[in-house]
């Protein structure tokens, strides 16, 4: 919500239009909105050279999270402004940060105003980087943000001790004030501003005993709920700056094509409100005084396209069916991601061996808010952007390179996101910011680009296609003794971060490292490049790999004549955390029963699955029926063990939303390519789960005390296999290819 740089009296999300040139003199103090009586804890900032506004990664770097002034402004009215390292996109991270910092600072979370911090070395709190994704936000920054709050509280206590002329040990804090119980005196945090600013922060400020927590671990209401429910919250598409033009873009039908002839350019330029028409790499843009006029003009353009040069150009004959055929045809051994036991001996001595192949399609992110960017070149030589993103410093560095500016000259504002699911990372040709920069430079005016829905579906980065080949065996007692899997394809980790490593972790997560006791196993990673722009998608490889693995595990249970729940429980006898969770989800569902059975006059069955994504553990049970060949999911029971809970209410909300996207993707969603082009260009052709098909979702948070795990994504991967396993129990038909709607079903 830092998108429009709110003043000191602005509520979170309140937009302020900025006249051109007005931001040239903003300092750190100006950005924080410091006023009379405000406490800016800034002594560390003066201990090292000043850095430019919008600090780049090359700036002199403190240990991230240690500069109180970079994060906190305590105001005279008792409110606290927190500049969060993370982008709020509906996951509740602003509230979680207020809980964690507020717990140690001794300020009610409701008294926080949380904005997204600008790029800067102070905010690299995710293992030396900064990103909002991978379910990393809370678990990567929990200790840092607690210490931040404790350091600020310590400074306030020391300032109060000097003011009251009493030993620090005689002072305590209550929400928003320091108290001296012996004399009955108290000082509000805002009263201690000037004195506290002169103190050097302690490097060893004491943390609270978790047994005394008042807000961490409690279902604190979300800070943004009122603004979002009343329309006050402002997203990227809502923002404005003075004098800006609006742009609508038409992309080439196939990535790699370029605009050739604009047959009616003069007529389009003459349309009402139109400012100009511009050729861009792989696209044409129309600028106008309103976005609607720009859109209507862009739709009127008569453009022919020619072949161009692009590193990710899609072949004219590329199809998703052809890609799946290529993955099936790849028989290479690949590289082992996991090996244990004597696989050959286990198969040789097995009572029964089975094999199966599973696949999953390309998926779009289909987030509610379409991509947008505002770009403005300022008179002081800076480039300023308002843009949905999940990694401000990464975007700052790339934008600096493409614009030819120093990173310190690139200012990134990160508004709240209208859904993201991994959509707003640096994917080639999948975001409008290069277009906005080029158009702002060409026109000398601020430019706002919004992609209409059709352009978003055309240029979205996709969850990659997945394909896994399995072979498994059971012994004379019916229990699994061997499992071999080969994941074939490409994943986003390998493409963007580890291209030279033999194993792409995003291809095998959810297959390698499963907790079940199997004597011999091997998981191979077989790399096959995929031409489309691939991307991270909610729960990444787990979103399909747990479907593959947990479905095949049920096939092994059937081969051995075992109940799939009881078999899993037996395989987890040496893993009490997982066994406890599995029992918890069974209890939540009223007791495990596979079926088929009758319920509410309908024949139903249940399926079970487990997943271990992002440091958390999840167990899922689904209850389904079949009506006119269509899967009806009546209930989902999900038990999640995130180690510890910062806000159990938000964990439940995240699991419910994850269950919805997991069910939608498994039943209905699919991106189909033909002739190098995606066939779905809007929600009429890219079907998502309708409200009428959303089941009841029951969630239990089980705190094992293990290290903090993620919560935004773990609810996804257990849903597809639990549903597929329930369908197999009900009909006898094993679904091995997603989405499930492709398979016509009937009751057994």
UniProtKB/TrEMBL annotation:
<dbReference type="Pfam" id="PF20256">
    <property type="entry name" value="MoCoBD_2"/>
</dbReference>
<dbReference type="InterPro" id="IPR052516">
    <property type="entry name" value="N-heterocyclic_Hydroxylase"/>
</dbReference>
<dbReference type="InterPro" id="IPR046867">
    <property type="entry name" value="AldOxase/xan_DH_MoCoBD2"/>
</dbReference>
<feature type="domain" description="Aldehyde oxidase/xanthine dehydrogenase a/b hammerhead">
    <location>
        <begin position="230"/>
        <end position="309"/>
    </location>
</feature>
<dbReference type="Pfam" id="PF02738">
    <property type="entry name" value="MoCoBD_1"/>
</dbReference>
<dbReference type="InterPro" id="IPR000674">
    <property type="entry name" value="Ald_Oxase/Xan_DH_a/b"/>
</dbReference>
<dbReference type="InterPro" id="IPR008274">
    <property type="entry name" value="AldOxase/xan_DH_MoCoBD1"/>
</dbReference>
<dbReference type="InterPro" id="IPR037165">
    <property type="entry name" value="AldOxase/xan_DH_Mopterin-bd_sf"/>
</dbReference>
<protein>
    <submittedName>
        <fullName>Xanthine dehydrogenase family protein molybdopterin-binding subunit</fullName>
    </submittedName>
</protein>
<dbReference type="InterPro" id="IPR006311">
    <property type="entry name" value="TAT_signal"/>
</dbReference>
<dbReference type="InterPro" id="IPR012368">
    <property type="entry name" value="OxRdtase_Mopterin-bd_su_IorB"/>
</dbReference>
<dbReference type="GO" id="GO:0016491">
    <property type="term" value="F:oxidoreductase activity"/>
</dbReference>
<dbReference type="InterPro" id="IPR036856">
    <property type="entry name" value="Ald_Oxase/Xan_DH_a/b_sf"/>
</dbReference>
């Amino acid at each position: 919500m830092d998108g429009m740089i709110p003043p000191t009296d602005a509520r979170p999300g309140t937009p302020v239009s900025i006249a051109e040139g007005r931001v040239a003199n903003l300092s750190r103090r100006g950005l924080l909105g410091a006023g009379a009586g405000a406490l800016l804890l800034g002594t560390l900032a003066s201990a090292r050279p000043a850095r430019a506004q919008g600090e780049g990664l090359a700036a002199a770097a403190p240990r991230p999270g240690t500069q109180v002034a970079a994060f906190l402004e305590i105001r005279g009215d008792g409110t606290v402004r927190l500049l969060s390292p993370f982008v709020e996109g509906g996951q509740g991270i602003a509230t979680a940060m207020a809980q964690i910092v507020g717990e140690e600072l001794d300020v009610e979370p409701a008294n926080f105003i949380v904005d997204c911090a600008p790029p800067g070395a102070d905010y690299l709190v995710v293992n030396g980087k900064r990103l909002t994704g991978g379910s990393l936000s809370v678990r990567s920054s929990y200790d840092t943000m607690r210490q931040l709050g404790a350091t600020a509280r310590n400074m306030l206590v020391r300032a109060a001790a000097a003011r009251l002329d009493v030993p620090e040990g005689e002072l305590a804090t209550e929400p928003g004030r320091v108290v001296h119980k012996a004399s009955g005196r108290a000082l509000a945090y805002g009263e201690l501003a000037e004195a506290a600013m002169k103190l050097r922060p302690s490097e060893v400020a004491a943390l609270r005993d978790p047994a005394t927590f008042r807000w961490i671990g409690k279902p604190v209401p979300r800070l943004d709920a009122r603004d979002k429910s009343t329309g006050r919250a402002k997203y990227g598409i809502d923002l404005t700056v003075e004098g800006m033009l609006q742009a609508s873009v038409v992309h080439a039908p196939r990535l790699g094509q370029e605009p050739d002839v604009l047959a009616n350019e003069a007529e389009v330029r003459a349309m009402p409100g139109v400012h100009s028409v511009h050729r861009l790499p792989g696209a044409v843009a129309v600028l106008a005084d309103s976005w609607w006029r720009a859109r209507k003009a862009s739709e009127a353009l008569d453009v022919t396209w020619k072949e161009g040069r692009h590193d990710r150009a899609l072949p004219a004959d590329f199809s998703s069916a052809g890609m799946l055929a290529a993955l099936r045809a790849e028989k290479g051994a690949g590289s082992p991601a996991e090996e244990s036991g004597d696989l050959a001996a286990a198969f040789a001595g097995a009572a029964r061996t089975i094999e199966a192949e599973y696949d999953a399609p390309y998926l779009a992110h289909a987030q509610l808010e379409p991509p947008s960017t505002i770009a403005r070149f300022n008179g002081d030589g800076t480039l300023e952007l308002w843009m949905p993103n999940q990694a401000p410093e990464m975007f700052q560095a790339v934008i600096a390179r493409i614009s030819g500016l120093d990173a310190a000259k690139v200012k990134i504002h990160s508004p709240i996101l209208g859904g993201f699911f991994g959509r707003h990372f640096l994917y080639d040709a999948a975001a409008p910011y290069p277009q906005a920069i080029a158009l702002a430079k060409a026109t000398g005016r601020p430019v706002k680009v919004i992609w209409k829905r059709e352009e978003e579906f055309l240029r979205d980065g996709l969850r990659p296609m997945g394909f896994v080949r399995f072979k498994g065996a059971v012994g004379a007692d019916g229990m699994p003794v061997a499992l071999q899997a080969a994941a074939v394809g490409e994943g986003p980790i390998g493409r963007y971060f580890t291209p030279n490593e033999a194993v792409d972790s995003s291809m095998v997560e959810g297959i390698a490292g499963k907790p079940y006791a199997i004597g011999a196993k091997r998981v191979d990673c077989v790399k096959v490049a995929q031409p489309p722009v691939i991307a991270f998608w909610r729960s990444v490889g787990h979103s399909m790999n747990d479907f593959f693995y947990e479905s095949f595990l049920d096939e092994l249970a059937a081969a051995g004549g075992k109940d799939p729940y009881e078999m899993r429980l037996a395989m987890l006898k040496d893993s009490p955390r997982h066994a406890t969770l599995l029992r918890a989800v069974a209890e939540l569902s009223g007791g495990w029963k596979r079926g088929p059975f009758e319920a509410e006059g309908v024949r139903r069955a249940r399926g079970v699955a487990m997943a271990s994504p992002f440091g958390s553990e999840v167990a899922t049970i689904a209850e389904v029926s079949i009506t006119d060949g269509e899967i009806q999911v009546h209930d989902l029971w999900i038990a999640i063990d995130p180690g510890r809970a910062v806000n159990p209410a938000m964990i439940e909300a995240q699991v419910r939303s994850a269950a919805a996207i997991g069910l939608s993707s498994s039943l209905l969603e699919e991106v189909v390519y033909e002739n190098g082009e995606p066939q779905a260009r809007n929600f009429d052709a890219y079907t998502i789960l309708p409200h009428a098909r959303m089941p009841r979702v029951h969630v239990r948070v089980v705190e094992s005390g293990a290290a903090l795990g993620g919560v935004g994504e773990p609810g996804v991967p257990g849903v597809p296999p639990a549903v597929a396993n329930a369908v197999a129990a009900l009909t006898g038909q094993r679904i091995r290819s997603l989405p499930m709607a492709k398979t016509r079903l009937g009751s057994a």
